[in-house]
Amino acid sequence: MVWNPTVMKDWQIAEEAEKNLPTPEEYQEMLGLQKDELIPHGKTPKVDFLKVIDRLKDKPNGKYIEVTAITPTPLGEGKSTTSLGIMEGLGKRGANVGGALRQPSGGPTMNVKGTAAGGGNALLIPMTEFSLGLTGDINDIMNSHNLMMVALNARMQHEANYTDAELAKRGLKRLDIDPKKVEMGWVIDFCAQGLRNITIGLGGKNDGFLMQSKFGIAVSSELMAILAVAKDLADMRERVKHIVVAYDKQGKPVTAADLEVDGAVAAWMRNTINPSLCSTVERQPCFVHAGPFANIAIGQSSIIADRIGLKCFDYHVTESGFAADIGFEKFWNVKCRLSGLKPNVSVLVATVRALKMHGGGPAVVPGRPLPEEYTKENLQLLEKGCENMVHLINVIKKSGIKPVVCINSFYTDTKAEHALVKRIAEQAGARAAVSEHWLKGGDGALDLADAVMDACREEVDFKYLYPLEMPLRQRVEVIAKEVYGADGVDWEPLAAEKAKKFEADPKYADYSTMMVKTHLSLSHEPSWKGIPKGWRLPIRDVLVYGGAKFLCPMAGSISLMPGTGSDPAYRRIDVDVNNGKVSGLF
Predict the structure, then answer these.
(1) Residue 207 pLDDT > 80, yes or no?
(2) CA-based, 20 to 30 A from 314: which of 203, 251, 389, 555?
(3) Hey, what domains does the chain have and what are their CATH numbers?
């Protein structure tokens, strides 16, 4: 059934669609699972990853479809909606299809961005469960992360209060932690700017160690990054050992293993290894697993979810966070390298709105009406903005993939605008299709589904942008020039010093390069739209994540704790006390 999203809100469509939500028994049949491979959890059962992957290890993989986007407006251009639309369109064509999406954070859900459940008739259900905690993975990550901070602060307190001999009686060795070099803070799954900088340990010597501290949002935790890239439980357990919590006064790392908290952290995390099952409104199954930041981490659902999906489905759809210069680049050179999986096609989502912005249109501001340039036909503005799309088509082609451009249709678009974008995309060597999945569900995505299936029939000569043996600074130079279009890279003294140290230490040779920059421009400057020319990428620092094994060159500042705006979503969310139904989610 198709609902009218112009008169029904997303939560209302979800409420109607959930009357036909697959049962655990139906999920079992859809995925070809055995009874003991499905873990009950209300409307959203989990899949026992270890059992499934062991049983199906010799089964050939299905087709691997990645979804990314052009450089977006601050409103986003519909990658999740398109991912669900592709599943629905392929379902209408009779394909055995499913996918994997990230778990949404409570911060954006209760703030201004919304839940990331798609929208209209390309929507993930059960929407309430998906949006409000799902099966508790983020809560497990919060507890695990904060346990490391409990261990750190308690250890610092005891080392301040006891002599070496007294510590030895308690089975402890002095770690000599430098309170000015504590890397981690606490986490909470909301946008709380008032917790960005705090002081803890106020009171007497029994009230903890007095120090400056901080909070980040839960999905920024390194544990979330680890969950996204871990191959299995053993890999996750090993990575937890190496998380750098702080540094000692000699500059040596103090890890979770040094604090003897790594085992307990892994125990808290054990159930997160299993993906949860949700569904499109047209009943295609979709795994939901992990939700890492898209700048300091890969910004995608997990390797584990993709491994299972490729065994269970003939077509498996996965989404990369942010635009192709960040999301696809990390999928290409980090996620695929770690997983050993090779994609068949990449779908590049484009909207007329975003392309007009890149053509010189006025600023797009969340919460404000769109300027008329975006709601009336303007082919000149649109054609100029298509340069951004062509650039990112060429980036995807460098991986050996021939991309499919999805023109995500809005009701303000005109046929002439769609025709122009389609022609330019095809001239650049991509397949292209206009899709109306938001309005019509799978029926609106049939052309897109056909283009994706056609692309999946082609052989892919997949290749990475750089070899793993390439030194860090050279990797960054290649990414800056080949993906962003920069003329080169400028390293500030601190960043250059760190990079030299990492390059000289064989321990970091296999660390992934995880670039940190704005998603609102190909450059480091959010206001530079289209294809910026004549610029160099400045790198001011390099962050290290010892458990996830990431080196993160920073081309701009980053806050791990977003703030809540003046008109957040929680003002409109409520529950019916008579039946427990939640309203107001979007």
Answers:
(1) yes
(2) 389
(3) 10-135+272-456 (3.40.50.300), 137-268 (3.30.1510.10), 472-554 (3.10.410.10)
Strands 431-435 and 404-408 come out as parallel
- 102 tagged catalytic: yes
CB neighbourhood size of 505 (10 A): 10
Closest CA to 223 of 548, 512, 559, 515: 548
pLDDT tens string 399-414: 999 899 999 999 999 9
Q: Is 506 annotated as a binding residue?
A: no
Point out the catalytic residue in the list 49, 268, 332, 438.
438
Query: Helix 137-161 to helix 262-269 angle, to the nearest 10 degrees?
Result: 160
Alpha helices, DSSP H, located in 174-261 = 222-229, 233-241
Spatial distance between the Cα atoms of 498 and 127, rounded to a whole number of angstroms: 44
CB 333 within 8 A of CB 342: no
- Strand pairing of 46-47 and 38-39? antiparallel
Cα–Cα dist 74/571, whole Å: 21
Q: Can 294 be counted among the known catalytic residues?
A: yes
Pairing of strands 404-408, 345-350: parallel
Q: Is 363 noted as a catalytic residue in this protein? A: no
Contact indicator for 345, 334 with CB cutoff of 8 Å: no
78 is in an annotated binding site: yes
Model confidence pLDDT, tens digit, residues 481-532? 999 999 999 999 999 999 999 999 999 999 999 999 999 999 999 999 999 9
Q: Annotated binding residue at 135?
A: no
Q: Would residue 330 show up in a list of annotated catalytic residues for this protein?
A: no
